[in-house]
Amino acid sequence: MSSARSRYENVVVTVPVTIPYVRHSTHGAHWFAARALRGLLDGSGLQKSQIDGLSLSSFTLGADTAVGLTQQLGLTLRWLDHVPMGGAAAMITLRRALRAVQSGDATVVACVGADTNQVDTFRTRMSVLSQFAQDAVVPYGGGGANGSFALLTAYYMQQFGARREDFGKLCVAQRENALRFPHALFKKPITLDEYLNARPIAEPLHLLDCVMPCAGAEAFLVMSRQHARHLGLRYVNVLATMERHNAFPEDPVQTRGGWALDRDELYAQAGIGPEDIDLVQTYDDYPVISLMQLEDLGFCAKGEGPEFVRRNTFTTDGSFPINTSGGQLSVGQAGAAGGFLGVTEAVRQVSGAPLGAVVDDARHALVSGFGMITYDRGLCCGAAILAREDA
Amino acid sequence: MTAPLQHDRFGNPEPPAGGPFLPPSERSRISLGLTAAAAIGRFALQVCRECRVWQYPPREMCGQCLSVLLDWEVQSGDGVLLCETALAHSTDPYFRERLPWRLGIVRLDCGPTAVVHLRADTPAAPAPVRVHAMLDRAGQGVLVAYPAMGTPDMLHDEQVREMTCDPKRRKILVTDGRSAVGQALVLALIVAQADQVWVGHAESTDLSRNLTELQTLPQVRVLPLDVTREESVKDAAATMGGQVDIVINTAELHYVQGGNLSSAQELAHAQMDVNYFGLLRLAQEFGPLMRSRAEKGQGNAVAWVNLLSVFALSSFPGRGEFSASKSAAHLFSQSLRAQMQPAGIRVVNVFPGPLDDEWNQNISLPKLGAAALAQAIVKSLREAVEDVYPGDVAQEWLARWRDNPKVLERELALGSRPV
After folding, report:
1. CATH architecture assigned to A122-182+194-211+237-386
2. Which member of A141, A199, A205 has the closest CB to residue B95?
3. Do B91 and A137 touch (CB under 8 A)?
4. Residue B259 lies in a domain
5. Which of B248-262, B291-305, B384-398 has the lowest mean pLDDT?
6. ipTM of this model?
7. pLDDT-based confidence at B16, cuts 50/70/90?
8. Which of A49, A119, A142, B117 could form a Cys-Cys staple with B90, CB 3.0–4.6 A?
9. Is B104 close to A122, i.e. CB distance below 8 A?
10. CA-based torsion, A178, A181, A185, A189: positive or negative
11. From CA B406, how far away is CA B412, in angstroms rounded?
């Protein structure tokens, strides 16, 4: 029996930092982590010595963990976390950091997702992903994440009647959002025809369904409200969060994630419902995962994702603004930073300081994370509802 | 539907650069149980000894009850193909040369789901299938979904042919054609549509009538080859070693005390010279030549077959010298296998029980006929296996040996009769 989730009192998210992405970099992940930390200091006016908590997520630190980074970054900390949970890491990081500050275990927690991308990073990283992947996925074609998500997408299409056009509509809308986001790697508008005619990667996935791996970092700070006000920072409140791992193991192929288990508690904790959400940042490594999140987070019923897509528009001025920076599909996927992109963008929109296109009067944002295909499905799901101070 | 294999008359004179590439071969130790079963043509999964839940992928504990008592047991492989994809892109160089590559997710009737290779003739998802475990070119066990009902020309699927060593369109050396087994094998290979079969014949003896008849077949060429003489093996390798796709070493000597040789030591030497040193000489000359032309394509080296004996597992009392020579060959073949594996060349060991030949007439066990053994060898090449125990006697010895080698030793000692 689970007890009611206590609220996040007097603790806020602030100073969203994006270190511009590049397709390939000769720098290590350490370089990107350092720039992110410097960005947090510059943005907050804090001294390095005032950071007493660090949570780090990265795939490409080699043998280092967050521990090794404390020495490199010259940080003396009383709270340290390393979150190797891929696309869900930002959600997990956020939850833990909020409670650390709320409980007084830390005063200011720097939350950093940073990864590099060298020409061979993606291939070499994949083969050390997990025992199950090594034994039971990699020998079957070496398609990597594309192969696994192709299978999920094919099954979803077969079960719920989704068409490639439905996925394409999301991709085209996100690209339109990206055109105004300064850090997006993709700056050329796309049409639905271009989406449909892009070269196949792993049927039914074609090129524009797949995120492009790149190098970069995303970061934010968690601190008390008084602290943020004292520093004169824009900030957002957190109404509710959830994480769930290995949900629905009995499903033969993944068509839902842990959000479906926890969304009622999530909205109960927030005291609002899906209809009160003004913008959504889904984890969009592949568009089918966005549809899954829209269903599991209660914006439409299971299997109605395709219909939901057909009756909505998703640009910042549309009926359902989604991935307002362009999302990973248009900004790029900087490894573990990918899951942080939705947080930094949502914080900017809700605190009234977006870098690109603006969602008018954004009071509530929902951010979602998804990660870690260690065999046939993504195991980690998370979500958070952020709110404007006056909301 | 799969198309019949086209005859490549000219071969591929220019192999692709950078190879030979093999599928990813890294595995956890626990998952090698799947490879071990696939090596003898079985599809086995772990099942929990306590709650009987089947597990996949391989693991150290039952995902249901957390028992660590998991046993590998043979499974039917029946299931439903739920979804599929065709990779147009791969990060792995082996698969990159072979795109598009078809794979899918199968829900096995026994419970778990598995990512599997698909044959071209496996119907589109959703469809009933039967999953087989096969050794891939890296020598590792992988799962392949076949149509639930067989289809014609089933063997010639391009994705699966990569995993097998089908004699069809191959150039093959049978090292000794003087024995009934050698001759039966030549015929079986020709029926299996081998392009060419070289048949070794030690120069010291005249061609038998059977061999003279075989020689009239257009695919057959008799070749001087005496595995006990290094020069002879070198000459044969120089003649055709650069063309052979499959070597099948049938040369064996099986003496019984009281034969032509005067002393026990002489008898042991002679058997060792053919059964062990013969293999060694062949491996030294032919091994490097085959490894150098193992690239993808129809005209590439794919397999090495050793005719061993089930006596290689546990000595048959009264046949200690023969058993020892076969056991020595067996242990050497494991080393040969490890050397050939990086080139993707499969070493197949065949462990028959007593053959129906002149040396075994006084053994009271059922005998394996030459034609049956030849069929078993061809079958092993068509399937993706590496250890073959043809016939009832070999199968029973294998079961007893796997159960407890020491008990088998005692059983054989007690059951032996003076010979």
Report:
1. 3-Layer(aba) Sandwich (3.40)
2. A141
3. no
4. yes
5. B248-262
6. 0.91
7. very low
8. A142
9. no
10. positive
11. 10
